[in-house]
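task queued by scheduler; priority normal; single chain, no ligands, no partner chains; default sampling; output format set to structure tokens
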Amino acid sequence: MALKEHGLHLFRSAVGTVLPGPMLKKVLVLETGRRPRLVVHGRSFELRKNLYLVGFGKAVLGMAAVAESILGDHLVRGIISVPQGIQATLRLKGMREMLLKPQSCIQVVEGAQHNLPDRESLKAASAIRELAEGLTAEDLLLVLISGGGSALLPAPVQPVTLEEKETVTKLLASKGATIQELNTIRKALSLLKGGGLARAAFPAQVLSLILSDIAGDPVDLIASGPTVASPRSIQDCFQILAKYNLTSIVPESVRTVLSSPGPEHDPPRDFAHVHNIIIGSNRLALEEAKRQAENLGYLTVVLSDAVCGEVSTVACLYSLFIQLVCLRGTGNSRLKGKVGEALSTLAAELEIPGLDLMDILNLLQGSQAERPVCFLAGGETTVQLQGTGKGGRNQELALRVALELHRAKASGDGASLEKYEAVFLSGGTDGQDGPTEAAGAFSSQELVGMAEQEGFNVEAFLTNNDSYTFFTRFQSGCHLLMTGLTGTNVMDIHAVLIRVRGAK
């Protein structure tokens, strides 16, 4: 098999293990009998026609379908907010297990096209809020949450409008703000985020099943934490705006709301009526990819499930890892030291959780030079928009890795790369990368050289943040990772595959 095929196999295996069906069936147990109970992680909830469901996120449609199949008639009513067009897409792909039955008691609202809040998602949020506020102490609210939930549950605090909130989100994203920073601002501007949904549902019991799309699985940040106590920090919000020079640019209504104290808490501050449970994560996906890579004979290392940082810096890191592997078995200690020192500097700059560079270096040093190597990682990089092109962080990262390898070869330091073939893959587990139909892209050390021979200026495409256009035009898009919507979302998967040329 070609390295690209290996990479595609690893990506699909990783995504497959975090699909809604398998995950929910592991944690959601219905005990029937005279007094039926719902059991989740050893915690029991008595059912007596008192169970309601709400959900929001890219994976929630599939989660809701499985939940309803398990809960049956015990479920009274539900409302979910899901991405625009997802039902038609899943139907077209034959993924009917992720669709609700025709007579479902769960109402589906589609919105947030291109992962941006809109009037439809606002309508869904209003309906979810109304349902939650109507519950009593006898009721149980099952909340299904996955990545993309923030855009699908917009309920701005007045006088902020939906358009003004979207403006702030776009401004922060264009400056390269992290998902943590984005969600800190979103929570402060929302009625339902930052514990707002849990407050609305009180005194009902709230059980949240969460598919994590943020490094470290912080429940207060996933979908901006609608069921997690999160006191508003005026100082944190204004520090974020100041960091990106946006304080004077954001709408006056936004500054007014951010300056005001947060809502009063009706329920206890410890949110004792809420139970938040993580059911799937990027780490789980990487563990499955690691098993598959080892079955294919690779010496496999999971670098981290929390890779973040600006794409150009992260691309340098991956390029250096590839160069380091290709230097195995050579006597060029000077170059090994140079690459190792550069790696240490970048790793310290990026502060990637779980990345143990010394262990990786020792593992590579003790391995045979002929053995293929696979590096796996997950997370979510950021892009500082400078141009007007079309692309996403995964496609841009893949193209930048190729450019870094091309530069290393051109400098003369990358001569050892010639002995090896290397493929880099970066893809979003939800099947989408920015406003494109691609999930990400593949790249190699030869890509930039071949593109230049055909008249493509890779650096110009990158300057314009136009990676998708490049990959579409170059070799008819064969380097794009095309999966369609997957029905899940646990951030991105990065894979580096390296082997000696000619090896099978």
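post-processing summary
- The chain has two domains: 20-155+190-229+265-280, 283-500.
- The longest strand covers residues 75-83.
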